[in-house]
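Morning!

This is the sequence you dropped in the shared folder:
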Amino acid sequence: MDLGNCPKCGAKWTAGYEKCTECGFVAIGAGLKHLPKKVRPKFKKFEEPGSWGPFIRGSLVMSLISFMVLERPWQNAWSYIRVLTGEPMPFTVKGDWDVVRAIRTQKGPTVFVDRPYQFARIYFKDGTVNLTFSSEGSALEATGKYTEDKGVVTITGLKAVGDTANFPDKLPMSVISTDENNAAANVDGRETITLIKRGSKEGSGEMLARFDATSPKQGYTMSQMGRR
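The structure's back. Tokens below.
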């Protein structure tokens, strides 16, 4: 405290003192800065005995625990949460796939529709891809490389093994999926194929191969393939 001069005796006030060093005069408010600050007491919200609040909260917790135990959402990449938030499902083509259907969407040569085989298989593994076409008594195999980026798979260097069959130097595929076992791909903008992961339960019934003109007016051709 510094008053300049003592209001009582007029002597010069010594800075930092609570009273005059000459006459002992104590100024109003002296000592207040040393008092402890008042702390407001915290009041807990009162709930009447038998109210619904605790029951509702307990029910919500139990429902959440039951949902987690029964559904185990982490096993399907939290699809429930992704549906609510609009987040896309994480997906990779890595694995062994059956091609169960191929539909021509544009004119021009195609990889799957134009080949007269009953079965088609694509195996993606660590940057390499293997295509296998087969029927009773005949088969065609091709190998190449692939890259995957945000739903676009690009196959390059696809060469037939022990055969003269030709494949495009670059084969782009736009892939979408409903889950980890089912997918569809637009291949080079000319055909759409349906893929089912080998060993999965979905669509495990074997289908006979067919090459039918399903819509002659539009020039579309569908290849219905089986699963081995």
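Headline: Confidence is low (pLDDT under 50) at residues 203-222.

More detail when I'm at my desk.
O.
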